Amino acid sequence: MTQMSTCHGATALPMPLGARLRRRAQHGLRVLATLLLQLVLLLAGREALAQSSKDLAQQRALQKKLNDAALMILAGHQGTTYFTMARDIAAALAGSDDIRLIAMDAAGGTESLRDLLFLRGVDLALVPANVLVDANTSATFGPGLPQRLTYITHLYGEEVHFVVGSAVRSLEQLRGRKIAVAPEDGNAEFTVRDMLRRLKVEAEVIRVAAPDAIDDVRSGEIAALVLTGGKPLRFVAGLPKDGSLRLLALPFAPALGDGYSPSAFRSDDYPALIPAGETIDTISVSAVLVAKNTKLDDSYRRIARFVPAFFGGLSELAGPQRHPKWREVNLAAPLAGWSRFSAAEEWLAQAKQEQSASVQRSFEAFLSMIRGPGAPPLSPSQRKELFEDFVKWTRKSIATPNQPERP
User: Fold this and answer.
1) Which residue range forms the structural domain that includes residue 121?
2) What is the pTM of this model?
3) Which helix (H) or strand (E) holds 229?
């Protein structure tokens, strides 16, 4: 006889077999559902982790691609000619997926050179030639600067504009007076101070916005406003033709030394300030594209890709929609005492070789046309003389129409 268990005096009746089976089945289903849920969550987690790893890998690949393509160039503050120049170069490269030029604000003058030498992440800088000469001579940033820097190319020369009142006729009349420069244009400020020092003219250089300075120049409170940039400058071209303002003549002086070149303003540059047919002597300073002289680092490789793309894109910059100064760029012009970036040197050598081969082919076709079949062979001296004449004729025939040589 089975003994009954008791609890608090009550007798517990045994659970029917069917109920026990149902409970066990329900418990089993709950366990199975829990296991399935855990499996689903595990698989979802693994899939999310895999997707996250894939996304991270794609982001890292994009980061590498962007950094490999991007070059940082020190230009100038917005509104300066160097800033515009850097933006023009960037626009010429805009169609390339492998090269992207990013213009950075820069104070200009020696500060741009300092930042190129010492700041992290800077690949290139636009630096005036007179700044390079001064920093090398004075060892402002240490000795051996030509060995620490390399240049890509000269760009165009930027003229020095001394806007003065009608009574000022010479630089000597500025002695002891105030000379204004735009607050954000470090290149102009350096050039004014350097020129005055070299020419031994004592004057006070102050920073005043160009529109404000003009009224003071007209009244005589300020002796001159100095601007630098490729002629014609829009601000200067917009000055009134009332005789109250003029451009001061600046004949080239040997005391200026390297870094400066003679130039001139013509009446078609500034018809409101210069009578038709007249010229005014001035000084120009070349903008130089420079880089640190490093080898086989990431910056070096980026610049090596940049050079052929930039040189090849100069034809776009020389178009009518850009500043006319771009048509004056001479890539082959050397910078005495400084070494050229190797990729630039190689590109120029290759271009010269291709040009020579093209001229030679054209010359042979020219000879065949003018001499005809069966003509007696030319002597070496005759051939040389004809070739030189042909080269001169070719250069003259492809010169830009209506663009005379300008100092």
Assistant:
1) 67-340
2) 0.76
3) strand 224-229
